[in-house]
Amino acid sequence: MAEPLLSSCCRCYSLRAGSLISGIMGILLSIISIIVIFTTRVEFRTILMDWLPQNAVKIIFALNLCMTILISLLMIFGVLKKNHYLMMPWVILGIMLAIGLLISVIYTAVVYFIDGFVLGGTLWIIIGLLSVVIYTYMWTVVYSHFVVQKNENERGLYSKQPYRR
Predict the structure, then answer these.
(1) What are the backbone angles phi and psi of residue 9, rounded to the nearest 5°?
(2) Of residues 57, 130, 60, 68, the one with CA closest to residue 97
(3) Beta carbons of 139 and 95 less than 8 angstroms apart
(4) Of 39, 74, 103, 145, which is the most exposed, with the fewest CB atoms less than 10 Å away?
């Protein structure tokens, strides 16, 4: 059996509450991001496919955010129903997103520095790394609750008496 990395969220909330907060915040931030994508004139770019038209990039981002909403809903439902299998997609996607966010923050800051925007690069790296730390902590909270729930579910499978007539 795996051990959870944390025993509480922010030292005053349960892992369950922290997981629910993470899921709700993921949904809210995704909805806000979708609104920002389609209502502002900010130019969004991808790191690898910078040749894509702006509308295609916006649609790709919006689809990713919709998937985040779906996976966050699954995770919330898994927490409420004590089903660790429903939490698993969020746990797997979450660590990949944390790595992607870190790469994106570093890449964007380097581009700012290369283009001579030292203040912008510095702010981007400070705020970006702070975001990565917060996101990684919240992922750790959800992962810890996932492990606790998985251990409880597995213990429940083996502790039940076999059916006898």
Answers:
(1) -105, 120
(2) 68
(3) yes
(4) 39
SS percent in the chain: helix, strand, coil, step 5: 75, 0, 20
Whether the CB-CB separation of 72 and 83 falls below 8 Å is answered with no
Torsion angle defined by CA atoms of residues 30, 33, 39 and 45, in that order, rounded to the nearest 10 degrees: -130
Cβ contact 61:44 at 8 Å: yes
pLDDT, one tens digit per residue, over 143-157 is 999 999 999 988 876
Residue pair 27/69 in contact (Cβ under 8 Å)? The answer is yes
pLDDT tens digit string along 34-89? 999 889 887 766 666 677 777 888 898 899 999 999 999 999 999 999 999 999 99
pTM: 0.84
